[in-house]
Structures are given as structure tokens and as C-alpha cells.
């Protein structure tokens, strides 16, 4: 019994450590985005694809990952995803071609799809009730604290070369080894008849709301990741390390909020959590669009982080509680895919806005979208 508890603690440690890698995918190179642009000789829109291409391939492959989880379990996919993450991500240390780097980021996206989905499903299957809320909050905190640590490391290493931050991706390989040793298989039994996911959506239409909420959250997050460094550059803040500090503020506020998610959920409904988040985002993005001070920008991205820290754990648990265990792999994988599509869509949606109305227009548009959704959400009684 004592040995099982020890292994369960090690499993939790590996899950949380791996959760930081999913956010590291884009955040560790965000501070060197301007250096990547200059080093590879590409325009701002093209360099944005380096930080979002992986998200498209996460979205494309997440449904396949979900089907495999429901059929063969999460453990093998988790271990394989970590090893592939290290190899594909770390290859950027040696790559000097824009298009070769894009290919490596696409492969990295497949790896992250496996890691992110298996982490969520494993937590939903291993833990129940209040403990599940607590652990899912910890997962959100791990993501967010990774969003603090990795940009700072990326900004520091980027001061030497834009290649160096890519070396950190190799951490996926030793984590894969630890996962192989400690990770249990959480699938209770082989499921031959897993049923239709479309039927689940017909029976549980709230899933459309949950999916849309994650899409919105990830689109807004990557709007900050992609466009905030460029906005800061226009204000005279171009150092990769200083840029990483602003991204770290977002992650810190999200991480601290996620740590308290268990207590937050015991007092608030899912709808109230969404309303609070939309309110914070409306204020935050609107303030960034009008800001002339770096202090105001830092406070504004902190507001976004607080909303993110509440919403992300809520989304995962809400979706997991809505469906039966036999559907969790697919429902969670499709959900995560929607989030990845949101990441990729940030440059598609707001790129033309930046060209027509400038970088300030990007953040004003984001604030207007949040305000409209807030009004609609308040009007809906359920």
C-alpha cells in the first residue's frame, strides 16, 4: 500500500512536470520572436507561424490521440509523446531554414497533442470529486508557472543566440523515461463499443459552450504571446528578457489563481466563473489598447491571467464530468484540439487587424469581442 502511494506521488510529479512542457511549446521562444524574425529573414506574419504551427497539428492529431486513448489507454501515448517532444522541439537548436523549422514545429505539435490529452484524461480517471478539482487546479498552475519559468529561461538564453532556447525541449526525453517507470495505466477495461461522439453532443449540448470557451481562451492567450512582444517593441522594450517578464506576469497571475481553483469552484458556479473571466478580459484588453505605460500593460495582462487561471481548470473538469468515462479520451482530445485551433487562429483572426488598424487595434478588438460575449452570457439565464 505504501509503495502504491509512493508511485502515485511520482505519477503526479511526472504529470505536473509534463504539463509545464505543453505551455513551453510556444512560450520559451516567444521572447526571441523578434530575433527569429531577423535571423531567418521573414516578415512578422511569417514569424508568427513559427509559434502557432504546432497548434494546428495538435488540433489535427488530437482526435486520433483521443480515439487511441479510449481503445488502448494513455500510458504508451504519454511516454511516446514526451520522447517525440524532446526530439522534434530540440531539433530547432540546429535548424537554420525557416521551412525546416516549420516542419519540426508541426511534428512537435503531434507530440504535444499526445501529452496534453493523456495528462487530462489520466487526472480525470485517477482522481474523483474534490481531489479531482484540486489536482486539475494544480495542473493549471503547473501550466502557468511553466509560463513564468520558460519565457524567462528563453529570454536569458536568447540573449546569446535565438537557437539556444530550443535546447530546453530536450527535457522531454528524460521525462519520458520517468513516465515509463512510474505511470500506471488508468483505463479500467478494454472498451469494444465506445459509441458515437455526435450522440453525446446531441444529448449534452453544453459541450458546445465548453468547446467555444476554450477556443476563445487560447485565441486570446496567443494574441498576447504573438502581438504583445511587437507592441512592446514599439514602446522601446525590445530586450528578450524584459519581454519575457511581461509574459511571466500573465502566467504568474494564472498560476496563483489555478492553485485556488478548488476553493473557487466550491463557491462559484461554472457560469459565474465564465462571467468573471470575461469581465476581466474586457477590461484588460481594452486597457492594453489604450496604454502608454508598461505598468498598465503589466497590470492588464495580469487580469487576463486571473481569468485564465479560473477558466482552464473549470473547462477540463466541466467536460470530464459531463460525459461517461468511455468517452473521455475523445471528448477531451477534441476539446484540446479546439484550444489548439484557437492558438493557431490568433494570427489568422488578428493578423489582418494588425495590418489595418495597428497593434493597438488588435487588443481593442479583443476587448470588444469579450465585452459582446459578456453581454450575451449575462442575457442567457441558464
Write a concise keyword list for the protein shown above.
single chain, 382 residues, mainly alpha, Growth Hormone, Chain: A, 14 helices
Short overview:
This protein is mostly helical and 382 residues long. 82% of the residues lie in helices and 0% in strands. The chain has helices at residues 2-27, 33-40, 44-72, 75-90, 98-126, 129-158, 172-182, 197-203, 206-234, 240-259, 261-267, 270-290, 294-322, 328-379.
According to CATH, the fold-level topology is Growth Hormone, Chain: A
Largest sheet geometry: none
CATH class category name: Mainly Alpha
Number of domains: 1
What share of residues are in beta strands? Answer: under 5%
Q: Element order, helices and strands?
A: HHHHHHHHHHHHHH
Q: Helical segment tally?
A: 14
Overall pLDDT confidence: 86
Q: Work out the oligomeric state of the chains in this entry.
A: single chain
- At the fourth level of CATH, the homologous superfamily is MFS general substrate transporter like domains
Low-confidence stretches: none
CA distance, first residue to last residue: 45 Å
CATH architecture group name: Up-down Bundle
Counted beta strands: 0
Query: Structural class given helices, strands, pairing?
Result: mainly alpha
Q: Which term fits the overall shape?
A: globular
Question: How does this structure look, described?
Answer:
The chain is mostly helical. It has one domain: Up-down Bundle (Growth Hormone, Chain: A), CATH 1.20.1250. 82% of the residues lie in helices and 0% in strands. It has 14 helices and no strands. The chain has helices at 2-27, 33-40, 44-72, 75-90, 98-126, 129-158, 172-182, 197-203, 206-234, 240-259, 261-267, 270-290, 294-322, 328-379. Helix 5 packs across helix 14. The model has no long low-confidence stretch (mean pLDDT 86).
